[in-house]
Structure formats: C-alpha cells, structure tokens
Amino acid sequence: MSNSLKIALGSIVVGLVVLGLKTLAWRLTGSVALLSDALESIVNVATALAALVAIKVAQRPADQGHPYGHHKAEFLSAVLEGVLIIVAALLILREAWHAFQNPRLIQDAGLGMAINAGAGALNAVWCWVLIRQGRRLRSPALVADGKHLLSDVISSAGVLLGVGLAVATGWAVLDPALAMLVGVNILWSGWKVMTASLSGLLDEAVPEKTLAVIREIISDKASGALEAHDLRTRHAGAVTFIDFHLVVDGQTTVSDAHDICDRVEASLKARLPDAQITIHVEPEHKAKHSGVLVI
Known about the structure:
295 residues; alpha+beta; Alpha-lytic protease prodomain-like; Cation_efflux; Cation_efflux_TM; zinc efflux antiporter activity; cadmium ion transmembrane transporter activity
C-alpha cells in the first residue's frame, strides 16, 4: 500500500473519531454552534472516503483507454470535496437560522467545550500531516483534504470562543449567530477548494517558479541544439507533463539528436521525478528565434 493510501485511510479514522467527539459535545450542551462543528465533521469523513477512492484510481497504470494515466481522478475528488463542503455550510446556515429564531441557553458547557477542544486539537495535528505529506507526495486530494481540515480547525476555535462568550454573558443568541459565521466561513472554504481543483482539470500550466526551472534545465543541458520553442506544461496529480520542440543543426545525426534529448530528459526528471516529457526534434529552418535559447 502506498504512503498516499495509508494517509487517506488515516484521514477516515481521524474523521470518525473527531465526529464522535464533536457529536458528544453537541449532545451534552445542545449548542447549535457545536452542532455546526459536528455537521462539518460528517463532511470530513465523506471527503476522506472520496480522497481514498480517488488516490486508488489515480495510481492505476496507464491503459489502452487511458493512455495518459488516471491522475486527474484526484482533481475530481477535490472538486467533489468542495461541493460537499458547500452543502455542509448550507445545512449549518439552515440550523443556525432555526436556532436564531428560538435561542436557548447552553447546558454542561464546560465538559462539552473541553471535548470539542480535544477534537479540534486532533484535527489540527492531522491537518498539518495532510498538507505537509500531500505536498511532498504531490497529491491534490490530500492537500485539499488538509486545507478543508484547516478551515475546520479555525472555525472550531471560533466556535469555542463564541460558546464561552454565550455562557459568560447569558446571551443565548450568540450561539446561533456564531454558527452562522461558521457556515459562511465553511462556504468560502468549499468554494476555494473547488476552484483550485478546476484549474487542474482545465490543464493549467505549472507554477511560474517550476516553469523557470524547466527553462533553465533545457537551456543548460541541451548543448548541441540551437533553441527550444513551443514549451507547454500541465500537471495531473503527481505527474507533470512537459513537451516542446527542440531545434538542431540540419547536419546533426539522429543518434546525436537522441543523445541531446536523453540528456535533457534525465536532467528534468532529476528535478521533477514524475515528469512525462515529449520532445519534437526539428531542423534549423524551423527555428522561431524565440522561446529557450540553448547556452
């Protein structure tokens, strides 16, 4: 089992534990703000399941029907996560509105808040693991899951502060008002996760910093060639796709041109291990005198 799958399984376990703790906190207190926190944890479990399935599909090797692999399954999972987060936010806003119309005092606040704080601390630790490992493994599904948990940690801290104020002041209306704020924050979080994932589905180019590295490697390692133009990049899950046209002198042999391509590919893969590279060799009359000039 890959590291990505192990982490995805861990997310499900952590999500179920946190859901149980937050549900217990809500049952003890009757707080609609704590209920909103528990509702978001249901989405955490659902998105962890979606991430597990997506990562498993993304790791399938390329086949006749999917010659470029199944890497985009992770982006689909992240979009689904964004949709589920938005649905959870709408449910929270609905519950908050009903409670706002009929506010009630919170019961057993101390114990409920302590349990909720413990669940939030567990989420904070796991959120750090997901984002750190997701970036290391270049897994959009894990990173999206981690960013969602980060919003959950922030909203949980706000919930605890608000519930504490409601108990201290006796203003019962603070509880549903805070739940509404949590719902709006989660709604924004879901939108950001979904739009970030759509960029991958739409074949957005790699970040400018990565593109600069690719250009530098081509310029430095393609000695014997004249220029490289029409450089295109995209990313899908852990894989970066790179293709460009490499212009060589018309007298260059096929073997020599092949050696240049091998040298460039090896250097690119040393920096981007999961890169898939396509190089189209052209004679000098095809030069555009633009793009990447070879040193």
